[in-house]
Write a structure and sequence with these properties.
Layout: E1 11-14, H1 24-37, H2 44-48, H3 55-64, H4 72-85, H5 94-105, E2 109-113, H6 118-127, E3 136-138, H7 151-160, E4 167-171, H8 174-182, E5 186-191, E6 194-199, E7 213-216, E8 256-259, H9 284-287, E9 295-296, E10 301-302, H10 308-314
């Protein structure tokens, strides 16, 4: 366990399954039962590694692994039916709920950012009588690009009317951790209600010497949501160098600069060292969302077409 000072944050965003509620055993049981009815088996690790993915993308990942899932929508419907039959048994994680309750009492805004369906969120909140403690919800039904894409968190940031540095994400799953990093938000990583680490993205340029940067593909290798894979352009084959500084391309490239410390525990596909000079007009905040892909999700404009002051205002 680590100690975390929550007082600087004016907004907290909680993932739901595995973070705020101890629901993963029930999700896994529902997935395994549905798979059995379709004539194959699935390991718990397969589901846990995709925590935060939409149900549809999980089924498509099963199909990609060679399983006969039949009709994808019907597979999802059956899994949801099974999970919801047990939803009254799903408990809150006490430490995560204590964070939420304390933050709420001091006036912080509270959001739920999840890959599950909205009906599950609403029912869980009602079952535990905490609906009035939640200000905003973004569910799988509310976005077109799911975690690890940061759209879920950027939508919540817009609802909260806060900047990224004033928001803390609480997450347990790799896709959600990646989404928080891409949204340039601090992320408290939890595991079974224990505080594992606090990831802080680099928001200034140049970075301190203690924060070496590496260029990484987005999303991490092997974790790409099935429905989005054709939308991501190929990574450049060569690194850009600091001297001389090259011009930024007309279209944003899927390369970001992430502090090595932020990548601890994240399955990343490391490519090549990338350095930008301190005079570069391309800020850290602007660089990250270009990965998704090249568009500011708040203004719906490519970052490359926005003046620097507009990019920061949109942040």
């Amino acid at each position: 366990m680590i100690d975390v000072d929550f007082s600087p944050y004016q907004g907290l965003i909680f993932d739901l399954d595995g973070t705020l509620i101890d629901s993963m055993p029930y999700h896994i049981q529902a997935w395994q039962q549905t798979a059995k009815e379709h004539g194959f088996s699935i390991e718990p690790e397969f589901i846990c590694e995709r925590g935060g993915f939409s149900s549809r993308n999980i089924v498509l990942a099963m199909a990609d692994a060679g399983h006969d899932v039949g009709d994808v929508s019907e597979f999802v419907r059956r899994k949801v039916e099974l999970y919801r039959s047990w939803i009254n048994k799903v408990p809150l994680f006490p430490r995560a709920f204590d964070i939420l309750k304390t933050a709420r009492e001091r006036g912080a805004k509270i959001g739920i950012g999840t890959g599950t369906q909205r009906i599950n969120v609403v029912d869980i909140l009602e079952i535990h009588n905490i609906s009035d403690m939640i200000d905003f919800i973004v569910s799988a039904d509310d976005v077109t690009r799911h975690k690890p894409d940061p759209q879920t968190y950027l939508e919540l940031m817009e609802m909260m009317k806060l900047t990224a540095e004033k928001i803390l994400v609480v997450e347990d799953g790799l896709p959600g951790i990646q989404a928080a990093a891409a949204a340039s938000m601090d992320c408290l990583v939890v595991d079974n209600d224990k505080f594992i680490r606090l990831d802080r993205p680099q928001r200034s340029w140049p970075p301190p010497a203690s924060q070496p940067l590496r260029a990484c593909s987005w999303p991490a290798a092997g974790m790409l949501p099935h429905s989005d894979h054709k939308a991501w352009p190929a990574l450049p084959s060569r690194a850009r160098t600091a001297s001389p500084a090259p011009p930024m391309p007309a279209q944003s490239t899927p390369v970001t600069l992430i502090p090595t410390s932020t990548l601890t525990g994240i399955a990343e596909h490391t490519h090549t060292q990338t350095v930008l000079p301190a005079s570069s007009a391309w800020s850290w905040r602007a660089a990250v969302p270009t990965l998704c892909p090249g568009t500011n999700l708040l203004t719906r404009q490519p970052y490359a077409q926005q003046p620097v002051h507009e990019r920061h205002a949109a942040s």
